[in-house]
């Protein structure tokens, strides 16, 4: 055997002995910190949900998850940065009803596709919206309010967190079903909307339950009904709209995890398995209860179907109510 042939055999053998180790190293996930983009400024309820989940999720993955707050543009900036990131599982985003539901349904020319441009990882959880009214309004319960709304002599206005927000679209869905007339007064956020509701400048609103609970407990607003399939533990005496005969009100403020399109299925499974285990822990349920969020673990396929159905719901309503906004 010639020396050249011997060297080639030795080189081939060396490569064969190294390749399995290298292949294993390449498939190990996660092998470095994960960036978790939250599309709102630090300090709010959505940020709290993300940090609470990531703290436990990182431990389950034996890796650090770094929360990166990217507010601005109604979530557009965060979505664009997520879409542009490598599809390796090391950049994830907390998608929610605004970024993947109401905004795409109502806003023209968004620079991302809420379904095609993202990989669904899993659901985190959701919180219902609650119909609240000014306490001095002549309506002590939902039937009273319905009669009040349908009385053409009454001039009723409702506040929202802004055009195209979930608080806006939920009330539009209500108006569509009861065929009542309420004047929309959009605000720049839920806080100023509550200020005017408490003062009686507006008469009704459909805020998220977490934002409403302090005002409900203090008696500054009166709860009449909640969205969702069942009554919420924090408002056991308040009926659901489904109970009251209105259909399609299983809508909620939801939070989930997405990444850029094309993340390998093995990486998605690793992330989802760990996330689902974390969401089933009783201590996490107690932590999320502060924001009235109920954990809702889902497989990536279930979460994908959920997002598609939610987007279709709000797109259909926006079309029916002629709600189309500029970005």
Name the helicity range: 40-55%
Mind telling me which CATH architecture of the largest domain this is? 3-Layer(aba) Sandwich
Mean pLDDT: 91
Count of beta strands? 11
The number of helical segments is 11
Strand content: 15-25%
CATH class of the largest domain: Alpha Beta
How far from one another are the termini?
73 Å
The CATH superfamily of the largest domain turns out to be Bordetella uptake gene, domain 1
Radius of gyration: 24 Å
Low-confidence stretches: 3-7, 9-25
Strand and helix layout:
Blueprint: H1 3-27, E1 34-38, H2 45-61, E2 65-69, H3 76-84, E3 91-96, H4 97-106, E4 118-127, E5 130-133, H5 142-150, E6 157-160, H6 166-178, E7 183-186, H7 190-199, E8 204-205, H8 209-218, E9 222-226, E10 253-260, H9 265-279, H10 282-288, E11 294-295, H11 300-320
Parallel strand pairs: 1-2, 1-3, 6-7
Antiparallel strand pairs: 3-10, 4-10, 4-11, 5-8, 5-9
Helix pairs in contact: 2-9, 4-11
């Amino acid at each position: 055997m010639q020396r050249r042939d011997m060297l080639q055999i030795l080189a081939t053998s060396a490569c064969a002995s190294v390749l399995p180790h290298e292949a294993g190293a390449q498939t190990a996930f996660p092998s470095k910190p994960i960036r978790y983009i939250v599309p709102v400024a630090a300090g709010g309820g959505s940020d709290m949900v993300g940090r609470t989940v990531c703290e436990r999720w990182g431990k389950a993955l034996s890796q650090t998850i770094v929360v990166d707050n990217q507010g601005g543009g109604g979530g557009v900036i965060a979505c664009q940065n997520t879409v542009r990131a490598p599809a390796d599982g090391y950049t994830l985003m907390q998608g929610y009803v605004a970024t993947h539901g109401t905004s795409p349904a109502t806003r023209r020319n968004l620079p991302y596709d809420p379904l095609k441009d993202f990989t669904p990882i899993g659901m985190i959880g959701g919180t219902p919206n609650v119909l609240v009214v000014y306490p001095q309004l002549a309506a002590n319960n939902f039937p009273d309010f319905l009669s009040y709304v349908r009385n053409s002599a009454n001039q009723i206005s409702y506040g929202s967190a802004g055009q195209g927000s979930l608080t806006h679209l939920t009330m539009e869905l209500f108006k569509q079903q009861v065929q009542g007339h309420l004047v929309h007064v959009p605000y720049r956020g839920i806080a100023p909307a509550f200020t005017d509701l408490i003062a009686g400048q507006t008469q009704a609103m459909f805020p998220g339950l977490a934002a409403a609970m302090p005002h409900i407990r203090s008696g500054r607003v009166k709860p009449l009904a909640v969205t969702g399939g069942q009554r919420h533990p924090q408002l056991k005496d308040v009926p659901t709209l489904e109970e009251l005969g209105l259909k399609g009100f299983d809508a909620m403020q939801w939070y989930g995890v997405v990444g850029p399109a094309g993340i390998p299925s093995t990486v998605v499974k690793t992330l989802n398995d760990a996330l689902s285990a974390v969401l089933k822990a009783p201590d996490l349920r107690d932590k999320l209860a502060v924001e009235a969020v109920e954990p809702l673990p889902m497989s990536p396929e279930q979460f994908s179907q959920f997002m598609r159905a939610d987007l279709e719901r709000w797109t259909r309503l926006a079309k029916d109510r002629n709600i189309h906004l500029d970005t």
